[in-house]
TrEMBL record:
Residues 11-21, 124-150, 273-301 have a biased composition (Basic and acidic residues). This is Helicase conserved C-terminal domain containing protein. Residues 566-738 form the Helicase C-terminal domain. SMART domains: DEXDc (SM00487), HELICc (SM00490). Residues 354-516 form the Helicase ATP-binding domain. The keyword Nucleotide-binding applies. Residues 1-47, 91-203, 245-301 are annotated as: Disordered. GO terms for molecular function: ATP binding; helicase activity; RNA binding. CDD domains: DEXHc_RHA-like, SF2_C_RHA.
């Protein structure tokens, strides 16, 4: 390998600072010119040459499309078709791997071969009546003659097997015959095709072109029958008659005394005789049919131009396939044996990088994947000095833990000493740890806690090109800190694919340097869609202008999925099992489908390793260490495998060039509320990332299932995720440092859409997390903990910078006590409300479990019991799963309650089970996923951990006690769950009781959407007309919502009453008429208002219950402010405000709640129309403390 050239530093001209202060922005670019790729490293296909050159130098990309300026617009508002000529011209029918299109003449031969009868058991000899003595003597004489004749017949007549010949080496000369091209094991021919002769005609051509198996069977039968005719002449009936006439005549008595008794021939001889007869007849039929097929073929070649063209195209495809496979095997023959214990991945000029970091404020490190930047740069910064404190971020938890473990092992120490990791819910390290690996969201939370005093000397943002929404906010805050010199740190941004010019402009006013290096360590052989189809002998033709059509249709996904299956089969049949395969699939559903197919079709030959967001890191690490002799590992991954982690045993990457990501449309308001997951083509930057998974430690093969001539149509970079994501949780966290999260979004490089910002702010307001600063109630409701601790200079600095961007005043909001609780726990705002309801009712532990359940996926799945699924169809398997769910639902029609009970029983089984296998077997019997239940339990513990320092509460550890509590109060849990997710409520307008003929439909109560049940997700309830359905999970498909993980309310009165009791704010008024006094309440969610009328007594009950909840809110506020005091001191403090102890108030609330719903029949609560704006009274779950008496 040529020696790597040293970096060439060139200084660009200084740029003037935008602020006009006279400071200059120094930009230094460091580029390492890569050596010219050789023919062995890169394909020289004339159609894909420019693409491959781009892949070799993928950091030199054009500027991306303009990003959203949604935050600025929100604030201001408040005031080439390519032709596909390289593919074959045949239809896009699916073909088996490494197989040619079906030949017409071969089809006839196959049909004839199928007609050859198999050996059948011999029948019993026919019984004859009494014969005279002369006939008996003649038969006996004939039997003697036949005995001598049968001796000449072979004991066993079988078709002779064609002799096996060793395949020639793949490096044979280019002029070698097709028989010399090595083939995969699944397609290897037992004998080379014979050379065609003139006398053979079309049969000779068929012998050369037809698959070896079909022609081998034909030849074997022919030779067997010829041998039979030569070696054994079976007597005919005429011969038998002649022998009977020439036998000597004698009396019956004489023959009876002189001739031995008649003995029938052995069954084996009789059966062999019949088999030989069948072989002769089969040979005759085959010869006739072969002659007929020959005549039809010759006639079609003369008269049918289309037939002739297809036949010639088939020959060309087979020729191209064999040449392509020969080249593939020639490249693969040079594959080296990898020593995993001697893998060296660092290929950076570390002294140059460290010097640039020392001399500049911001440094971009853009190098090839696998160059060692994720481990090498933070490790080198750590070893600079004993005073350095470094933090390095990763976009995903899996990569965070894996890289920290790798760096610690390189330093020969344990994780948690000098090197540690910190992710939400798990932390290894202490105050002495000097190198932290964190997820990007964890770093953001640390910055928001105290932005004025960042405890790091170096901040490294790895995989920067992914640009998650939290990373956009983090970069904006760090940029502001560097510009205003509030903290002293160095910022390092690392990526393999990044448009540095655009970002250098974003950091104007700072000293910026760029280090670029693109040096492939090992050759990577690229196969695009055209080359892949040629290699497999498939005539699939991709439609033109795949990208310009905007969407990826289902048919295209299925074709590429099928092609990937064939490619896996081909690679598995012809490569060493130690060389693993990595397959990039669009989403989790495709990963599970492919995994099931491999376990069904190739279970004895492959080791399938699913890899998506729900798979624990320990499973991937175990798979990397696992090696089953004779079985090839196949990693089936989503885009989660694009970054950071090196899989040293992977030699092949199969890329479908697809990904499933949220997609928000400005023209579709429903997509703003529920961003749909859309299958879309990835960017060229992601192509480079996936290609970079190989070539790190050994040569590799990259199969890109996308036309080479259309690769330039892919976008250079992916659209920033912040433009297609909900930002409710992120907005709530930003309120820790600024009074309006939109101010921070306006400073980001990529910004959310206007509709997304408006929707998030409305949701936070309706849940009671924030209040407008102009609201008269906000002064008493805001929590001083945030604003007392917050750096006022930081808030003013952010607001001033944002106002300079938008040129208008920015409204301010105050964060409430509810908002502070939701900031601490690792769930989104809607599930977080369940935790708050738990504090109100004294069911803290039970509602924390409910929050963990509603934040996770349902563990019930028909795929959890694969053994049973093979025996039943999908509909029956779904019904069995739903019947299993009904055993857990406590008599309610609630999927959430069913999962809560399943999780508690799972915890009990964990404690009493003999081993993990016992627990897994229990899950299998109950149609439950062990991994998903473990995720629920882990999240539950994480929520308790985060709340422990904020508020003392009764944590019930024993699962048996929680199970008893759930059995008694399951209906109350369902009521509070309905309130938390009321914005997604639906009213059923049509019903169905069959899974296979599901025609249910529902309309949104607080939205204008139409929803149907997701029949692919198991549920313990069936929709019935008039029901109110509260789904936790909604997914948008076109203009309809698929609802799953739901709770059903049979009585609308129960639905309205639950909202009146627990809504954070309701407007109401009292009216009187001839029938008496009544109350009208207004409920607002999702921008829509509904009015509910109740009688006087019901209105009084509602208002009184809400007063009790407000009293508990006051107690919670005092308890939090004085959490370090003993319980007796807190009770004394509460009595000075005329408040009862917390547990006494909680007991009153839960008792009153049960009583209200038990006597619901005696109350009235009906939805009415109310047009007048005269509801001037407000009932708020207020945290304002009453006047202190002593």
């Amino acid at each position: 390998m040529p020696r790597r050239p040293g970096p060439q530093i060139r200084r660009a001209s200084d740029k003037e600072n935008r602020d006009g202060a006279g400071t200059r922005s120094d930009t230094v670019k460091v580029a390492v010119t890569p050596p010219a790729p050789t023919n062995e490293q890169w394909s020289t296909n004339k159609q894909g040459g420019n693409v491959l050159q781009w892949l070799a130098q993928k950091t030199d990309a054009t500027a991306p499309a303009p990003t959203s300026r949604g935050a600025v617009e929100y604030l201001n508002q408040a005031k080439k078709p390519k032709s596909y000529a390289a593919a074959a011209a045949l239809s896009g029918a699916k073909a088996k791997p490494s197989a040619t299109a079906e030949k017409p003449a071969e089809k006839a031969v196959d049909q004839l071969a199928a007609k050859v009868p198999r050996s059948a058991p011999a029948k019993e000899p026919m019984k004859t009546g009494k014969r005279d003595a002369a006939k008996a003597a003649s038969k006996e004489l004939t039997k003697v003659v036949l005995k001598d004749t049968v001796k000449a017949v072979p004991s066993k007549v079988t078709p002779k097997e064609a002799p096996k010949s060793e395949a020639q080496p793949p490096a044979a000369a280019a002029a070698a015959e097709f028989s010399a091209v090595p083939k995969p094991r699944s397609k290897a021919a037992p004998v080379a095709p014979p050379e065609p002769k003139e006398s053979d005609g079309t049969a000779g051509n068929l012998a050369q072109l037809a698959p070896a198996k079909a022609m081998g069977a034909f030849t074997a039968v022919t030779k067997a029958t010829d041998e039979l005719v030569k070696t054994a002449e079976i007597p005919t009936s005429a011969t038998m008659h002649l022998l009977s006439k020439t036998a000597p005549r004698s009396s019956a008595s004489t023959l009876a005394n002189n001739v031995r008794p008649e003995v029938p021939p052995p069954r084996r001889v009789r059966g062999r005789r019949r088999d030989d007869d069948r072989a002769v007849r089969a040979q005759q039929r085959i010869e006739k049919e072969q002659e007929s097929a020959q005549r039809r073929h010759d006639e079609a070649m003369r008269t049918d131009a289309e037939y002739k063209q297809r036949f010639e195209t088939m020959q060309e495809m087979q020729t191209a396939m064999q040449i392509s496979q020969a080249e593939f095997f020639d490249k693969y023959r040079r594959q080296e044996t990898l020593l995993l214990n001697h893998v060296v991945t660092e290929r950076l000029d570390m002294p140059v990088i460290l010097e640039l970091i020392e001399q500049h404020d911001v440094v971009f490190v853009c190098t090839d994947t696998g160059s060692g930047k994720s481990t090498g740069v933070p490790k080198a910064l750590l070893e600079l000095s004993s005073d350095t404190k470094v933090v390095s971020t990763q976009p995903r938890r899996t990569a965070t833990v894996a890289i920290s473990t790798r760096v610690a092992s390189l330093r020969r120490e344990r994780v948690g000493e000098d090197v540690g990791y910190w992710i939400r819910g798990d932390k290894k390290g202490d105050e002495q740890t000097r190198l932290w690996y964190m997820t990007s969201y964890t770093l953001l939370l640390r910055i928001l806690e105290n932005p004025a005093e960042l405890p790091f000397t170096h901040i490294v943002l790895d995989e920067f090109h992914e640009r998650q929404p939290d990373l956009e906010v983090t970069v904006a805050l760090l940029r502001l800190a560097l510009l205003n010199k509030t903290s002293h740190f160095k910022l390092v941004l690392m990526s393999a694919t990044l448009n540095t010019e655009d970002w250098e402009e974003y950091f104007a006013g700072l000293r910026v340097a760029t280090y670029k290096q693109s040096e492939p360590e090992h050759p990577i052989h690229d196969y695009f869609l055209e080359e892949t189809c040629t290699l497999l002998g498939t005539d699939y033709q991709a439609p033109p202008q795949l990208v310009s059509r905007g969407v990826v249709d289902k048919g295209t996904v299925e074709k590429h999925f099928y092609l990937a299956q064939n490619l896996i089969f081909f690679l598995n049949s012809c490569s060493n099992p130690v060389h693993s395969i990595l397959v990039f699939l669009p989403g989790r559903a495709q990963v599970e489908t492919m995994s099931m197919w491999l376990r069904t079709q190739l279970s004895h030959r492959v080791d399938a390793v699913p890899w998506h967001s729900a798979v624990n890191l320990s499973e991937i690490e175990a798979a990397m260490r696992r090696h089953i002799p004779g079985r090839q590992k196949v990693y089936l991954a989503t885009d989660i495998a694009e970054v950071s982690i090196t899989l040293p045993d992977v030699v092949y990457v199969i890329d479908l060039v697809l990904v499933k990501r949220p997609k928000i449309s400005k023209e579709s308001p429903s997509s703003i509320q529920y961003p749909p997951l859309v299958t879309q083509w990835i960017s060229r930057g992601s192509v480079a990332q996936r290609r970079g998974r190989i070539g790190r430690v050994q040569q590799g093969f990259y199969f890109c299932l996308f036309p080479a001539v259309q690769i330039t149509d892919l976008p250079t970079y992916s659209q920033p995720p912040i433009e297609n994501s909900r930002i409710d949780e992120l907005s709530l966290h930003c309120l820790q440092v600024v009074s309006n999260p939109v101010a921070i979004f306006s400073l980001c490089h990529g910004q959310p859409l206007v509709g997304v910002i408006a929707s998030s702010m409305n949701m936070l307001t309706q849940l009671g997390c924030i209040l407008d600063a102009k609201d008269p109630l906000s002064a008493g409701e805001r929590i001083d903990e945030i604003y007392n601790r917050q750096n006022e200079s930081w808030s003013r600095m952010i607001m001033a910078a944002a106002q300079a961007e938008v040129m208008t005043d920015i409204p301010e909001y105050h964060c409430t006590f509810i908002g502070r609780i939701l900031q601490l726990i690792p769930v989104s705002p809607q599930p977080g409300m369940l935790v708050f309801f738990g504090f109100l009712t004294g069911l803290e532990s039970l509602m924390i479990l409910a929050a963990a359940v509603t934040s996770s996926l349902s563990p019930f799945s028909i795929n959890a019991n694969e053994g049973r699924q093979r025996h039943f169809n999908v509909a029956r398997a779904m019904e069995e799963t739903e019947n299993a769910m009904r055993e857990f639902c406590c008599g309610l029609r609630s999927d959430i309650v069913a999962v809560m009970k399943a999780a508690l029983l799972f915890r009990i089984e964990q404690r009493h089970g003999d081993s993990m296998e016992t627990v897994r077997h229990w899950c299998l019997q109950k149609y439950l996923s062990y991994d998903k239940l473990m995720a629920i339990v882990d999240l539950e513990n994480h929520i308790k951990y985060e709340l422990a320092e904020f508020m003392p509460f009764r944590s019930i550890v024993e699962a048996e006690k929680l199970l008893e509590q759930l059995d008694k109060l399951a209906s109350m849990v369902a009521v509070m769950t309905n309130v938390a997710f009321v914005a997604q409520s639906l009213e059923v307008t049509s019903e169905s009781n069959s899974y296979t003929n599901s025609k249910e439909m529902a309309l949104g109560i607080f939205s204008d959407l139409t929803a149907v049940p997701d029949i692919h997700s198991p549920s313990c309830l069936r929709w019935q007309e008039g029901d109110v359905i509260i789904p936790v999970q909604l997914s948008l498909i076109f203009d309809k919502l698929l609802a799953s993980f739901s709770t059903a309310i049979a009585s609308p009165k129960q639905f309205w009453m639950s909202l009146l009791l627990f809504s954070q704010r309701v407007h109401y008024a009292t009216f009187s008429d001839d029938e008496g006094t009544f109350h009208v309440f207004a409920l607002s969610y999702g921008g829509k208002e509904r009015y509910v009328e109740v009688d006087e007594i019901t209105g009084y009950v509602v208002l009184e219950f809400r007063r009790k909840l407000s009293a508990i809110c006051g107690v919670l506020r005092l308890t939090h402010a004085n959490r370090l005091l003993y319980e007796d001191h807190i009770n004394t403090l509460l009595s000075s405000y005329s408040l009862a102890p917390l547990q006494d108030l909680q007991r009153e609330v839960i008792t009153a709640l049960v009583s209200i719903f038990n006597n619901l029949e005696d109350m009235t609560a009906d939805e009415v129309e109310h047009d007048e704006d005269d509801l001037d009274l407000v009932s708020l779950l207020s945290f304002v403390l009453p006047t202190r008496t002593t």
